[in-house]
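LAB NOTEBOOK - FOLDING QUEUE
OPERATOR: T.R.
BATCH SIZE: 2
PURPOSE: Compare the predicted structure-token outputs for two unrelated chains run back to back under identical settings.
PRIORITY: normal
REVIEWER: second-year student, initials M.K.

ITEM 1
FIELD SEQUENCE / FIELD STRUCTURE:
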Amino acid sequence: MRERALMTVKEVAARAGVDPQWLASIEAGVGTHDVLYSQWLTLVRATQPPRPDWWDEGHEHDLHLPPGGHHEPATPAEHEYWTRIERVRSGIREHYRHGRPVADRP
């Protein structure tokens, strides 16, 4: 995911708040059995674009549900919520498809 996002080990480590050497060893497959699930999530999230200001951790779960959620939105507020979630989901897909914008690359 780091490579797909066109990021260096140092960049991901800085965003995730981990030691770059530790991350390089994880990528090399050394000691991966000791990595906590929460650490994997932090590493993955560090390769993704920042979330919008309105985002909180409760929204993260909904990114992994199929588009439209588990049912059709029943109210205008639900429809707006799922529209916002889809915008974030689309931004993540584009980020991995094209990497960071040229201005952000080292």
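ITEM 2
FIELD SEQUENCE / FIELD STRUCTURE:
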Amino acid sequence: MDLEALYAEIQTTLKVNGLAPYDPPEDCTPDRIQDGIDTLTRDQNEHGRKVRENRFRFIEKKQDQSGDELAKQIKASFDSFDASKNGKLSAIEFEAACMKMGVVSKDAAAKEALFSKLSQGQAEMSFDQYFAWMKSRMVVSLDDPDSVRGAFSTMADGKQGLSDADLHLLSAEDQQFVRENFKKTNGLYDHSSFVTQTMGR
């Protein structure tokens, strides 16, 4: 929007002064820039969908052997953003690594507080600190209400409940279970109250 406003201002100034209009390069026209933003938005949404689907493959069950694959993914996300290759992440690198794993906080204060807590007040976070926290976020322990609630929250992409579109991550049987047993408020299935009701907190 800022670019479009600037473009309009330039064209207006040129026209008022009797000058030829500005003709930007073909790949930098307002329409082309908007197309690029639209493509980026679609790609980000698709990436987020795949990450949420992937997380549900790591729900912890007896005899589940997915732990090694999860460890590889966590390490890969760390290595991707360890720009200095010193085995540590800055606050910005940590946020990028989290996004790669589909763990996103939309509140800036919450991001800062989380980084400070995990890094123990240091300017950078070690791999061990990152790995331990990320694994706790990604692996769902079925006897831990907070863990189950966190998994539903990821599936809902941070919304207050699950939409009908979110249910495509589940099997047909599980979709039916949600529709029959979860309270629906404002068009969303309230996962948090269901966890509290069935698990006691």
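REVIEWER COMMENT (ITEM 2): Confidence is low (pLDDT under 50) at residues 60-65.
FOLLOW-UP: none requested
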